[in-house]
Every structure is written in C-alpha cells, then in structure tokens.
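User: Design a sequence. Structure:
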C-alpha cells in the first residue's frame, strides 16, 4: 500500500515513553518521507495517547495520521531502541543513529519555556538515553526567564526594562536543583538594544547557546540583515558556545534566507570558535552555509530544540543532513561535543 508505513509493536506500554517514540516516527515519516498514515499492529490505544498524537501532529500541521490496524507482518522484527525500525513501501527506515554513538543533544527546553508543550526533564532524559544520546544540555530561553510572555512574544522585551516580579531565574535554579543530573545551560536572547539577557549561577553547569529570535519590526530587508549581525555580534561578545538555528529568524518571518550573510556569519563564528547549530525544530539547515562554515574551519553542533518530549534525542534528521552533505564521515572532527572536563560555566569563553 502506498504512503502507509507500519510499526510492529510488541506488548505496547502506553504508560511509558513509547507514545512519544511513535509520535516521533509519525513526524519523521510525514516530514521526510511524505507518508500519509502510520499503522500500528496493536489493539486500540488509550484516548489520552491518541489526543497527544492528534494535538502534536495538528500543531505542526502534519497530514499524517496514526491508526491501529492490520499491518503487513514484519517477520520477527521488534520495535525497540535505538533502531525503531519502521516498514514502508520502499523498505525499512530507522529512527535511531546506530552508526554514530556518543552524541550530545545541546538544546532542550524545560517546562519553564512559554512554548513548552509537555517538557519534563526526567522523561526527556529517558527519551535521550533510549535514543542513544550520551550527553544532554538543557538550554532555557533567557529572555523568557526575565520577561512576561506577552512582552516576550511581542518582541518588546528590553534587558534594561526588566521587571523584578517577572524574574523566573530562581524557578530555573529550583528546577535544576530538583532535577536529575544533566547539563543545564541557557539559550541566550538578545533584545532590540543588542543587550543579552544573561544569567550566571553556580547551578548552570552546561552550555550557552545564543539565539536571534526577533529582528526590528519596522526595518526593511537590508535593515533586518544589519540588525541580525548587530545582535549576533552582541551574543558572540557575551560568550556563547553555539549559535542556535542560525538563519531561522528570517524563515519564520516569511523572508528569504539572506545568502549574502553566509560568509560574514561563518567568519564570525569561526573566529569566535562558536559552533553553528544543526536544528530541525520548525527549521531546515542550509547546506551552502554549513559547507562554507566548514571550509573556513568552523564547527557544527546537534540540537533538537525539544519543546515536546517526542523530540528529545531525535537526531536522525541531523545525521541524515550530514550524510547527504557528505560530511557524516567527518563528524569526529567537525562536530562540537561535550567533554567531561567541561563542568563549570566559569570556563566558558569570556
Ligand atoms: Zn531558539
Ligand atoms: Zn530553543
């Protein structure tokens, strides 16, 4: 049957993380393989699980549906970590990356993100572990820790105008204290004054990701490009390890991706020894930019930018991107990764 993929489930446990892996499979099959239906060979799923799936697929405007039904029997094959084999008309597909162990996912959100769908640190760590990911870095939006939601989303947050009552950094510290061991860092926001919303704490033992989420509303395209570089420079001088989703702000704003910025951004990142993130959360990385960056001696990093538990450890698209670009064999040399001597934020480039 065309456009229908199948998963063989042995004794499905609907109370654990399995529903999130199935959700991940559906997102992957629709986004990268154009599948219209994922069929599970099991009895009915609980209503709450079906609702979770429907909501998540609806939120991302996916066309795929998940159903129970009779599937072509994949003889003796079992759905299990880290392969998560799925069966499609063109053969079987894997969700795991057995080819490449010891990965770090540098970019996950917690329940404190205004845009969190269902994040939970312990469950996310379990998803990562089952996905074969070795190190996990939570990176909460610093702007969201300082600004109320409506101020943040309307691009009106200013570091100099931050309000003490809206400061949620103690909540992030409390969450870290109560959570299982992991790396805890920040996704640093930069405001219209090019001031970086920053937060230092002994509890932050993780990596600092910088992100440009907003550009000046009233600027024309040339102005927006200049604004992007101005904000990037502020992030780089603030001391970051990774630039999150490098040009996503243009894509999300319905603008063309400014290819003339590829060179200046690649040069800035390389000079600052800051990695460029490969990010598929409502985003696609740009192969030409990555090629140019690597030619200049730069580094890349993998981040899922998880807002929903199904994304935690979902690095298959990142790996496929590298494979298609012909750089998967060089990951040892070009992929920024966690090293165990890196345990204290005071050691960051500053
Ligand atoms: Zn971001
Ligand atoms: Zn993020």
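Assistant: Done.
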């Amino acid at each position: 049957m065309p456009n229908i993929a199948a998963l063989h489930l042995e004794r499905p446990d609907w109370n654990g993380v399995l529903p999130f892996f199935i959700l991940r499979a559906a997102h992957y099959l629709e986004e990268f393989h154009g599948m219209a239906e994922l069929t599970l060979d099991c009895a009915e799923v609980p209503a709450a699980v079906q609702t979770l799936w429907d909501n998540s697929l609806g939120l991302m405007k996916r066309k795929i549906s998940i159903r129970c039904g009779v599937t072509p029997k994949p003889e003796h094959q079992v759905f299990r970590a880290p392969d998560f084999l799925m069966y499609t008309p063109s053969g079987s597909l894997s969700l795991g990356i057995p080819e490449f162990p010891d990965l770090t996912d540098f970019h996950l959100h917690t329940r404190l993100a205004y845009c969190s769908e269902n994040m939970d640190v312990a469950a996310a760590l379990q998803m990562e572990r089952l996905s074969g990911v070795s190190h996990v870095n939570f990176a909460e939006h610093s702007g969201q820790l300082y600004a109320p939601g409506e101020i943040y989303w309307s691009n009106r947050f200013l570091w100099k105008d931050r309000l003490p009552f809206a400061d949620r950094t103690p909540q992030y510290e409390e969450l870290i204290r109560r959570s299982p061991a992991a790396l805890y860092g920040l996704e640093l926001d930069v405001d219209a004054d090019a001031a970086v919303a920053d937060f230092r704490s002994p509890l932050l033992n993780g990596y600092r990701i910088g992100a440009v989420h907003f550009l000046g509303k009233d600027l024309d395209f040339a102005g927006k490009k200049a604004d992007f570089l101005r904000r990037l420079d502020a992030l780089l001088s603030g001391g970051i390890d990774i630039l999150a989703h490098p040009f996503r702000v243009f894509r999300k704003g319905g603008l063309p991706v400014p290819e003339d910025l590829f060179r200046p951004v690649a040069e800035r990142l390389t000079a600052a020894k800051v990695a460029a993130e490969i990010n598929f959360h409502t985003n696609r990385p740009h192969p030409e930019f990555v090629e140019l960056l690597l030619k200049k001696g730069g580094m890349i990093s993998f981040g899922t930018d998880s807002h929903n538990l199904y994304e935690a450890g979902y690095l298959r698209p990142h790996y496929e991107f590298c494979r298609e670009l012909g750089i998967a064999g060089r990951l040892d040399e070009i992929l920024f990764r966690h090293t165990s001597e890196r345990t204290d934020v005071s050691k960051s480039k500053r």
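Residues 187, 211, 213, 244-245 surround zinc ion (ligand 1) (CB under 6 Å). The radius of gyration is 20 Å.
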